[in-house]
Amino acid sequence: MKIIFAFCLLFVGAYCAAIFDGQLNDSWTLFKRVHKKEYATIEEETARQTIWETNVAKIRKHNLEYDLGLHTYYMKINHFGDLTHEEFKKSMNGFKVNANVDSSKNDRHIFLAPSNVAIPDTIDWRKEGYVTPVKDQGQCGSCWAFSATGSLEGQHFASTKQLVSLSEQQLVDCSTKFGNQGCGGGLMNNAFEYIKQNNGIDTEKSYPYTASDGKCRFKPESVGATDVGYIYIKEQNETDLTLALATIGPIAVAIDASHDSFQFYGGGIYNEPACSSSPDALDHGVLAVGYGNDGGKHPTDYYIVKNSWSEGWGDAGYLKMMRNYQNQCGIATMASYPLV
Ligand SMILES: *[C@@H]1O[C@H](CO)[C@@H](O)[C@H](O)[C@H]1NC(C)=O
Ligand SMILES: *[C@@H]1O[C@H](CO)[C@@H](O)[C@H](O)[C@H]1NC(C)=O
């Protein structure tokens, strides 16, 4: 009796495992089709499928915990699904604090938070016309350029009521003398300083993005916006960051995006306890475009953040990050915006 029972269990187990594999094979085929993935050899495909399966397992586990109320955000597979976390970090981030000397000390001023100003409970600059559609940096560490154009697009709109998409490629190709390293990384503040001294940045349309380092092709007749330096928010001060967001517009921020939870963020309020707020940990430039509170059972303050990994990543290209939560992931460590 005992033996038969054990045999049945084993049989059921093996049968289930086989079905499970088959389902994953179909999903893998779909994943390749949807994301237009092609691999040169069978060996490479096998390796990629193994990485993808590991990622799928990690995401499933997280989402089961999310369903149990243990997380404030869920994860999803996306076009980074066949990359290990190490590969991903190498090609997708690119905010570099240490590699660059701040080239612009003379042109920067601190944000003086207005006192006694009543600010709204929520703000979303997308609804006010300040924000261009989500862009895609591709496999190039140019996040800093997207963060810089995003903030300048907003300030240019504030002063002209024209929303003009601006050229990240120009910043990648032309701002090396200001301490930036193209696809190898850079700083938003160096970009603002370059734009000032260059007397402008071209439109996206006239100087399109290629996701690779190239020769500078700036054309003065195609300038879409300019700035006269930049304002930085007092380091680590979320009160001032919120005030700047409420009264100025989208703010360029740097964050610690080095955790695999970030690679596959899908929606909800991102909360990564392993995040650091130290300047050394900042590795990704993004754009804060608003803030709010989810009004849930445990009301949570958040920032609305625009990323540059296409609409396929996160919540249509955006994420919500914890606000007033000890400067989680360093979002208030190095925030700034250009002066137009
Ligand atoms: C899944 O695909 C692999 C490789 O193509 C194959 O060896 C395996 O038999 C497939 N599994 C199922 C259950 O179809
Ligand atoms: C943030 O800065 C304001 C002044 O702008 C100051 O009153 C406040 O104490 C600071 N908060 C923290 C946490 O440092």
Automatic annotation (TrEMBL):
Signal peptide: 1-16
Residues annotated as domain Cathepsin propeptide inhibitor: 28-88
Gene Ontology terms: biological process: proteolysis
Residue ranges occupied by any Peptidase C1A papain C-terminal domain in the UniProt entry: 119-339
Keyword RNA-binding: no
CDD domains, sorted: Peptidase_C1A
Homology family: Belongs to the peptidase C1 family.
Protein name (Swiss-Prot/TrEMBL): Cathepsin L
